[in-house]
Specification:
four-stranded mixed sheet, 761 residues, 36% helix, alpha+beta
Length: 761
């Protein structure tokens, strides 16, 4: 690539970075937003993103293509944004794209069974790339160079003959598919940085909607907005400008140092690996001095050539209508090859540097810096405190009440970023402009003078309706009465649920280790096999109990891998007891492919095994605690079926039917998932950093969720569940969840629980 760019420097602006990504909103506490507030104030309410009408998460699967070409400056560098197969409630959308044309037929969004496709198909991806190339060629007059960080797409896409139904084929030279290496998001940074920056913007906008719940249609609008008009201007161009230096670092031998003549910085080669931290350093730091001799001699002022070029770039963007310059456009020109690389001498933001020197030129008629004392600008303590007060106060928004025309309510929304606060607060803008400092410097000064200013993380959670709160309270009261009549019932409850452990590639996992503070940084973790790009997954069912008969098994009644597990290889559909499951359809779809998730028949068979095992070992039928509304709706405990086995008939009240969104009540199993997954990651790390295959991962997960379960941990949770249920008896039925009631009333919890658990610890 370095040789190609040297031969044709304009090639950098003809690269189009393409990739697909997914934004998912889950319920409960799987999302967070960071906001600024006062340390002494009451904690702001948590975030509620997902609609109360659905239990399943809502998802937007989308394709994005960006470029640094000047023709796409007004579009923030975005060539194409399009939702793809796998998006929630896509409602066919008539398979229309932004230009109004059809995609490539129904099969792109729909499977043969007329259900929504789970992910993007090869034909759909080829059609999207066809559109990208067509749009780019029409607007710029050149065919693009496609940078795609996906080996499967690279293998199946032929740029010499790109097809799209109803459109003529496109034929480009083969070298226009750049075919970047696998596991190289750093090389594909033009698109990866957009995903990394865009998803927090989506969450922040969801948060700013006054805590109202989000539907699939609303989420699609938000994601589209944040990945098109919400993309920071010139952000793609900035990423492209640093690519050549990155390529030099990667292509140089590991540890080799050289000084970049244009920027005056020391670079460290990575030998093909990802660029290490500190791969680009200041010459001064590399030499171990506080300032270089050149910098000291010039009082840290830029040479005349750099200042002259900055003023010329600013003047070229002068608007005679408004009498103002555009510092951002000037910064792009400042970094272009026409400047001979002088921009690399400037350590501050280029737009700020240009604006300052142009203002100085207009005022004094020369390019020399205005005389000043040499001391940096110091924001007064009074102004910093005022700015901090504004940031902590947040802003109030007015929202209409659905179902009540004309009625509104106000709610406090905190600022999640300094940029957002400056955008919405003229007073804060005035303070920043008074001193001419960057938002980060202003924030740093605010923290220095006001220790009360903090940034906290708000977790997303399900927002209970009044009916759901009443359902939870009624359920707890019923359970209290049943346990009071039969205290041994607590030990006959079996907590059941399914979960998934997934190992992704790249840097999506972490392990905490102890080491010396002065020691070199340990090498990072590599979990996933190099032979596959797709993540490896273990989807499993777990049932635990506090019954004493299962003490030797650490409370585990049954652990079994389910449909959706990677490379399950049919497994002859055998279970732990050696019997067959319920036929091929349990693990396999009708098309003879691995099923994506557990089927109802498979779940019923698993519960049949749980009940059989429990009754055989204890002499009692279990009480089933299942935190899954769809399973509760389809499972009839009065007639549990399993192929080749007699039906089981238990009393209907043995299905406890815990309320929806109640992992706190089902903590007996939820705590096992929460504690077991870190144990799996730790064991993967302990395997001397060797890569993990699907078969090895299944063994590790089984071990950590059976013999690795801490002794008596299930019994402890069962005892806590009883005390948890007791709490609302002495509390008003307010809008708080039971979990929050327990946290806020520890003394009351002990008083209420004394009646049943007297003498137990």
């Amino acid at each position: 690539m370095l040789a190609r760019v040297a031969a044709d420097p304009s090639m950098m602006y003809h690269i189009v970075f393409c990739d697909e990504s997914t934004f998912v909103l889950h319920g409960l506490s799987k999302h967070s937003v960071q906001v600024y507030c006062s340390a002494g104030a009451a904690r702001p309410s948590d975030v509620c993103f997902i609609s109360d009408k659905t239990i399943k998460p809502i998802k937007v699967h989308f394709f994005l293509a960006v470029t640094a070409h000047g023709q796409y400056e007004d579009a923030n560098g975005v060539v194409l944004y399009e939702e793809c197969s796998g998006t929630t409630d896509i409602d066919r959308r008539a398979n229309k794209l932004q230009d109004g044309s059809e995609m490539t037929g129904k099969q792109e969004y729909w499977t043969k069974e007329n259900e929504l496709a789970k992910s993007t198909t090869e034909e759909e991806m080829e059609a999207l790339l066809h559109i990208v190339c067509t749009k780019f060629q029409k607007k710029t007059g050149h065919w693009p160079y496609l940078s795609i960080d996906n080996a499967s797409i690279q293998a199946h896409i032929d740029v010499t003959c790109l097809k799209r139904e109803g459109q003529p084929n496109i034929s480009m030279p083969a070298h226009h598919n750049l075919k970047i290496p696998n596991y190289s998001p750093d090389i594909n940074r033009g698109i990866e940085h957009q995903f990394g920056g865009g998803k927090p913007r989506v969450r922040n906008e969801c948060y700013s909607l006054n805590h109202q719940v989000i539907t699939g249609a609303e989420l699609r609008k938000i994601v589209r907005r944040q990945f098109t008009t919400g993309v920071p201007k010139y952000s793609v161009a900035k990423d492209v400008a640093g690519l050549t230096l990155l390529w030099q670092i990667i292509s140089s031998p590991a540890g080799q140092q050289w000084t970049d003549q244009e920027s005056g910085r020391v670079c460290l080669g990575s030998g093909g690996n990802w660029g290490p931290r500190g791969s680009i350093m200041d010459v001064d730091k590399a030499a171990g001095t506080s300032k270089s001799a050149e910098t000291q001699g010039s009082s840290q002022r830029k040479d005349a050539e750099t200042r002259e070029w900055a003023v010329v770039c600013a003047a070229s963007t002068f608007d005679f209508g408004t009498g103002e310059i555009d510092p951002h456009k000037a910064a792009i020109l400042f970094r272009s090859r026409h400047g001979g690389g002088v921009h690399k001498r400037v350590k501050e933001r280029h737009s700020v540097f240009i604006e300052r020197h142009y203002k100085n030129f207009r005022e004094f008629g020369c390019i020399a810096d205005a005389h000043r004392s040499g001391r940096p600008v110091i924001i007064s303590e009074e102004d910093a405190l005022a700015a901090s007060k504004i940031l902590k106060a947040g802003h109030w928004v007015t929202e209409k009440i659905k179902g009540l025309p004309g009625a509104t309510y106000e709610e406090l929304i905190y600022f999640s970023t300094m940029d957002e606060a400056l955008l919405k607060s003229p007073q804060l803008q005035a303070i920043q402009q008074k001193y001419g400092v960057s938002p980060s410097k202003l924030l740093k000064r605010m923290h220095a003078v006001d220790p009360d200013l903090i940034r906290i993380t708000l977790r997303s959670h399900h927002k209970f309706s009044y009916a759901e709160l009443q359902d939870r309270i009624r359920w707890c009261l019923t359970m209290l009465a049943r346990v009071a009549a039969d205290p041994s019932m607590m030990y006959h409850i079996v907590f059941c649920d399914e979960s998934t452990f997934v190992l992704h590639g790249l840097s999506k996992h972490s392990v905490q280790v102890y080491c010396s503070a002065g020691a070199a940084r340990p090498s990072d973790v590599c979990f996933i096999s190099d032979k596959t790009i797709k993540p490896i997954k273990v989807h499993f069912f777990l049932a635990v109990t506090a019954h004493g008969q299962y003490e030797d098994a650490n409370g585990v009644v049954l652990y079994e891998e389910c449909s959706g597990t990677t490379d399950i290889d049919r497994r002859a559909n055998k279970l732990q007891d050696g019997s067959e499951m319920t036929g091929k359809q349990e693990y396999w779809t009708k098309e003879n492919e691995l099923a994506k998730s557990t089927t109802e028949e498979e779940m019923e068979a698993l519960l049949h095994i749980v009940c059989t095992k429990f009754q055989k070992k204890t002499g009692h039928w279990p009480y089933l605690s299942i935190d899954n509304a769809s399973i509760q709706a389809h499972i009839d405990v009065t007639c549990l079926k399993r192929e080749g086995q007699p039906n089981i008939s238990m009393p209907a009240h043995h299905n406890l039917k815990i309320p929806n969104y109640s992992p706190d009540i089902n903590r007996g199993i939820e705590h096992q998932f929460g504690g077991g997954k870190p144990r799996v990651r730790n064991e993967c790390y302990s395997l001397n950093h060797q890569v993990i295959t699907g078969a090895e991962l299944r063994k590790i997960v089984r071990r950590q969720f059976t013999t690795g379960v801490p002794k008596y941990s299930v019994a402890k949770d069962a005892m806590d569940s009883g005390r948890l249920m007791a709490t609302p008896l002495s509390m008003p039925s307010s809008g708080m969840t039971i979990y929050k009631m327990v946290k806020r009333a520890p003394l009351m919890r002990g008083e209420v629980g004394t009646g049943w658990f007297q003498g137990e610890t």
